[in-house]
């Protein structure tokens, strides 16, 4: 039984009622530390953060050394407050160092610190001390931990140790791994089966929504997210999935409401502010975009994986506002950020230079990105898009035609830009071919590049015929 399911059970409702009635009446009620930790987690999921922390701190004082309260408190420090050092302080107070949850917490602290190999070695050492009867659960739990941190190969390696292939937990992980590896059809198939078996699992609906989104089934993804939100209105993953779906369909104002809701629910995470900023860019409200992107920058920790993206988006936005010095300052910041892609930043630098009319310097920057990346197709595509956005259509067409126009590439992105160039240059036959591929492979990109006048109610499967019909009428 998952925590979500347990919190809906009569058993938990009875415990919660006893606790809250005692609090109301000022009567001292004895509950064991596990029950108190469950109630604190329930409050946390309901968005009652202060109430949750106060209760768990009380439980720690009542039951010093008890695993459940200390481990939950440590996870708040680790995952909400981004403080692995404080999390470790709580972890070391746990008396029973053989508790599996203690081992998982220690592992998670290592993963937050990007100590992936150390985490794997630690778990392999633990394996020898674990009872045979607990090993199957251990394999699944460890695989889940690695999947949570996008270490998919390691998750798969641990999952393969399990013999419980028919269990729902095993199937869920198999679906998550398929999703991460780009096998969206398999992932959808697995999660469709799982939601049929348990339609009250928000986690299953969230993963199904992600699989559908990545398969460009945007409306279906939004519907799955709505099922998850109905199960738990405070499910931040479901809120984000729905916001992303609305954004993909061009419903920017409504998407903004959900990104704001995400920000209100998770004020210590930068995701909501960052996506609000990106949405304001789409609405051409650039000063508001800067405000939210700067908020995201302030919230993001120095080691945040999103920081380079925030810096790049700020650079792009300042460039659009004509503030070239600010834009270049943010490119320099991005170059110093952990995990920065220097080739992407060379493309962005070229974009800004070309926007200022410094075509030769821009060309040098694009060339540097392409040569330094060893002619990486993704970098070539970024350069082509940048050149297109600066209105050098024929030059952009040359890049895109070379990258996409000859034979089958297997790519899903870029065809909308090739179609746009062909349309501008009067290459009608090539326009239709590129547009058809774009609509089949990446309707989200089609709407972003060519879909200014596409009705928001139009299903993505109808984009091609709509655009052809309206092109012919122009």
UniProtKB/TrEMBL annotation:
It holds the Pfam family TPR_16. The keyword Transmembrane does not apply. This is Tetratricopeptide repeat protein. SUPFAM superfamilies: TPR-like. Keywords: TPR repeat. It comes from Hoylesella pleuritidis F0068. TPR repeats lie at residues 236-269. It comes from the Bacteria.
């Amino acid at each position: 039984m998952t925590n979500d399911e347990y919190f809906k059970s009569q058993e938990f409702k009875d415990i919660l009622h006893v606790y809250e009635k005692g609090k109301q009446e000022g009567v001292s009620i004895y509950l064991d530390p596990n029950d108190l930790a469950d109630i604190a987690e329930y409050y946390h999921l309901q968005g009652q953060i202060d109430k949750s922390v106060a209760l768990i701190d009380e439980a720690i004082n009542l039951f010093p050394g008890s695993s459940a309260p200390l481990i939950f408190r440590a996870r708040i420090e680790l995952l909400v407050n981004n403080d692995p050092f404080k999390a470790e302080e709580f972890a070391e107070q746990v008396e029973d160092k053989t508790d599996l949850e203690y081992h998982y917490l220690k592992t998670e602290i290592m993963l937050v610190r990007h100590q992936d190999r150390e985490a794997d070695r630690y778990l392999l050492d633990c394996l020898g001390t674990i009872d045979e009867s607990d090993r199957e659960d251990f394999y699944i739990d460890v695989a889940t931990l690695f999947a949570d941190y996008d270490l998919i190969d390691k998750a798969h390696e641990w999952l393969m140790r399990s013999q419980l292939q028919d269990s729902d937990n095993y199937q869920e992980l198999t679906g998550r791994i398929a999703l991460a590896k780009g096998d969206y059809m398999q992932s959808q198939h697995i999660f469709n089966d799982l939601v049929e078996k348990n339609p009250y699992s928000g986690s299953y609906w969230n993963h199904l929504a992600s699989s559908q989104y990545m398969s460009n089934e945007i409306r279906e993804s939004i519907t799955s997210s709505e099922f998850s939100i109905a199960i738990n209105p405070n499910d931040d993953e479901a809120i984000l999935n729905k916001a992303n779906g609305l954004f993909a369909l061009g419903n920017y104002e409504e998407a903004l409401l959900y990104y704001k809701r995400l920000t209100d629910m998770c004020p210590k995470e930068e995701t909501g502010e960052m996506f609000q900023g990106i949405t304001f860019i789409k609405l051409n409200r650039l000063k508001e975009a800067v405000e939210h992107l700067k908020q995201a920058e302030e919230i993001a920790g120095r080691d945040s994986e999103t920081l380079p993206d925030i810096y790049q988006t700020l650079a792009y936005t300042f460039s659009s506002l004509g503030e070239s010095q600010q834009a270049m300052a943010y490119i320099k910041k991005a170059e110093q950020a952990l995990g920065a892609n220097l080739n992407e930043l060379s493309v962005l630098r070229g974009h800004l230079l070309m926007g200022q009319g410094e075509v030769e310097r821009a060309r040098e920057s694009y060339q540097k990105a392409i040569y330094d990346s060893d002619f990486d197709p993704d970098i070539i595509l970024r350069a082509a898009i940048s050149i297109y956005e600066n209105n050098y259509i024929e030059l952009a067409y040359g890049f895109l035609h070379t990258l996409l126009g000859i034979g089958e590439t297997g790519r899903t992105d870029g065809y909308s830009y090739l179609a746009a160039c062909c349309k501008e240059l009067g290459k009608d036959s090539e326009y239709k071919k590129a547009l058809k591929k774009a609509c089949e492979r990446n309707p989200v990109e089609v709407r972003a590049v060519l879909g200014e006048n596409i009705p928001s109610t139009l299903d993505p499967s109808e984009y091609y015929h709509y655009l052809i019909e309206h092109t012919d009428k122009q």
